[in-house]
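Input chain follows. Return structure tokens only.
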Amino acid sequence: MRTGTVCLPLHSGKAPPWLFKRMVKLAGGISEALIYEYGQDEFLKRLSDPYWFQALSCVLGFDWHSSGTTTTTCGALKMALSPEVHGIAVAGGKGAVSRKAPEEIEESAEVFSLSPDKTERLKYSSRMSAKVDNSCIQDGYQLYHHCFFLTEKGDWAVVQQGMNVDYARRYHWLSDSMIGFIEPHGICCDMKEEEVLDMTANESESCRKISLDLVKDNPAHLMKYFKHSKQLVLFDFENGFGLPPRHHLTDIDLGKHGMEVLKKAYELQPSNYEELISLAGMGPKKIRALALISDLVYGSAPS
């Protein structure tokens, strides 16, 4: 389940090396004390609390609230925590390092002697938590940081962050009491965006069902709804009609390989919406296009 969200001003720059070395030492000391006193589960629970995590980052060396608190604190924890000593490992990180999360999860799972099934589930959890926050919830914040914390028992927490032009938004997840990845996720923060698509909301349940039905039927039937190079749409005449820009009809373009992805999904016949979005290539464009068709054609609007 997602346990919280926080928005932060977006700042550039790096932590000074002399400060980061101290942050690593202090992060190790605090983590060791917490794990000794309260156990690994409580440590993950606190990391998944956005305000506790922010307080930790300030204690480690930040005098202000900034997007850098996320990346630097996670980096310090990754260096400070030892799978052999603490029974906790950290996979992923910022930018290109985030894409190494599956490989690093496998390495840590081998150290912890976790079963192949458990290892695959951990990799799936890492991928799906990122996909939900980047694709199912389209709030204008593009993920650029993903850290996956796992214990020797196979429990996990995620701290990940996306950014828009001016702000960063951090998302927290915790495996405790996890039911599924497509469940309501409240986002409470000072930054309220004008246009947001939330396919995890209860209000989107009917839209999710129709999106799944559209794919399980032959996706060739959807071609008439997608943008073609010579097809005119209402926005071609917006000067004459004065149409409001809020519907973004041209956003239904799926991209170069969009239909191939939908055809692959059709062949696999996913049993539910989570299984649909877990497929490779099922990104924001496809999710948005299916939601728009569900709304325009079948009257099932998403949240």
